[in-house]
Amino acid sequence: MIRNIILLSALSLMAACASSPYIQTDSDRNYDLSSYKSFKVQSPDVEDAPELISINPILIQRIDRAIESSLEDKGLKISEKPDLVIRFYLGTKREIDRSSDLGGYGYYGRYFDSRDQRYIRSDKDEISIRFHDAKSDEVVWYAFTRFKRSNNQNDQEAINTLIKEAVSGFN
Predict the structure, then answer these.
(1) pLDDT digits (tens, 9 = 90+) for 13-52
(2) Where does residue 68 rank: exposed (0-12), middle (13-18), buried (19+ CB within 10 A)?
(3) Does 149 reside within a domain?
(4) CATH number, domain at 118?
(5) Which pTM was predicted?
(6) Is residue 11 part of a domain?
(7) Who's near 38: CB < 8 A, 6+ residues apart?
(8) Residue 72, in any domain of the structure
(9) What's the rounded Cα separation, in Å, for the pair 24 and 15?
(10) Taking the CB of residue 67, how many other CB atoms lie within 10 A of it?
(11) Measured between alpha carbons, how far is 35 from 15 in angstroms, rounded to an integer?
């Protein structure tokens, strides 16, 4: 009995520690989001934007498919004459973390010191998804999230989960 309680507590603690990305959303209250029934996704064009050279074009395809799948699950239809035009943008925020190692002493100029500085580069990918009214081209709904780069971006299921969570607040 006690073993089961400890196991259940450990599993609950691990589930609570599992992190999901923080997703910011916003919508323009001048538009009735429930009136939109069809959409078209316009992917970023890597060939026309040299600054996107480091973005994996296959990742763009995965995100495109994930957006289409998530919106179809919500009852919207893909159309060449859509009510909504969805555009998404990818970026990378590079952060440099500095840490000190307090182990051991070394001679630095005129004095002994134990500080050893280390710099660690951390890349976080960002995605912005914008839903535009097809007639006015105004943004009617917006989602933004940062997610830590991992090997999961090479997995369609991981991208589907992220995008599904991102667009869950629409409509």
Answers:
(1) 444 445 667 899 999 999 999 999 999 999 887 676 666 6
(2) middle
(3) yes
(4) 3.30.160.670
(5) 0.71
(6) no
(7) 76, 77, 78, 79, 81, 82, 83, 84
(8) yes
(9) 22
(10) 23
(11) 37
pLDDT in tens, 87-105: 998 887 767 766 665 555 5
Residue 145: CB partners within 8 Å, gap ≥ 6?
Answer: 21, 22, 23, 24, 126, 127, 162, 166
Q: Which helix (H) or strand (E) holds 97?
A: strand 84-101
Residue 14 resides in a domain: no
Structural domains counted in the chain: 1
Question: Is residue 83 within 8 Å of residue 36, measured between CB atoms?
Answer: yes
Determine the distance from the C-alpha atom of residue 95 to the mean position of all C-alpha atoms in its chain, rounded to a whole number: 16
Domain span at 61 = 24-167
Copy the structure tokens of residue 56.
């994996």
CA distance 149 to 90: 12
3-state class (DSSP) for residue 73: helix
Packed helices 156-167 and 57-73: angle between N→C axes, nearest 10 degrees: 50
